[in-house]
Amino acid sequence: MEMWDWINQNSGGVQALGSVIAILIAVGVAWWSHRLDLCRSEEAQRKEDARALETVASIVINAMNLIQVAKENLCDVGETSIEGYFMKIHDESAFKNAGEALREVPIAQLPDFEVVKPVLEMRDLILKANELLVQIHRDYLTNEGDWREELKYFSKLHYRANKHTSTIEDAVRRVRDGD
Q1: Based on CB atoms within 10 Å of each CB, which residue in 63, 81, 91, 93 is the most buried?
Q2: Residues 64-79: what's their mean pLDDT?
Q3: H-helix or E-strand containing 4?
Q4: In this predicted structure, what is the pLDDT of residue 145?
Q5: Rg (CA), the chain
Q6: Is 155 helix (H, G, I), strand (E, B) or coil?
Q7: What residue ranges define each of the domains in the chain, with the CATH number in brackets?
Q8: Counting beta carbons within 10 angstroms of the beta carbon of residue 98, is it exposed (0 to 12), middle (13 to 18) or buried (19 or more)?
Q9: Maximum CA pair distance of the chain?
Q10: Contact present, 85 and 147 (Cβ < 8 Å)
Q11: Average pLDDT over the chain, rounded to an integer
Q12: Are 63 and 102 in contact (CB under 8 A)?
């Protein structure tokens, strides 16, 4: 009975201690709830950023595919496929549309700064690729200019475009995985 006697004699202290414990619990619950809300908000932002980057990556990959097909048909096979590529495969409007799509990417809103330069470079590369392909075809048909040297330059352009595409794909994976 000593404990009950002590509690009765110190009821104000016990009540104050209970109030402090209740306040600490309320603060802890509020803090935990806030942290949970922050985690949810960060996760939602990460998913939104990943979706935005995936959209940009799909535009870049489309442009890269145009360059890749041209390289495979012109640089990797050689002279025998040049005319066939330009007659059956090359679509100048596809290159222009890819360039336009890249120009419409909202650079200022990209969630990962590491993709800004590659996207800007891909804007230029897709247009340069088309101009170079038109020049190669013209030089090949007229025997003016050195279309073989231009093919070497196109290979270098392809390498740069591939490098930028890889950088963007890496950024998508990093943002999607939360790294």
Answers
A1: 63
A2: 83
A3: helix 2-9
A4: 78
A5: 31
A6: helix
A7: 45-177 (1.20.120)
A8: buried
A9: 112
A10: no
A11: 86
A12: yes
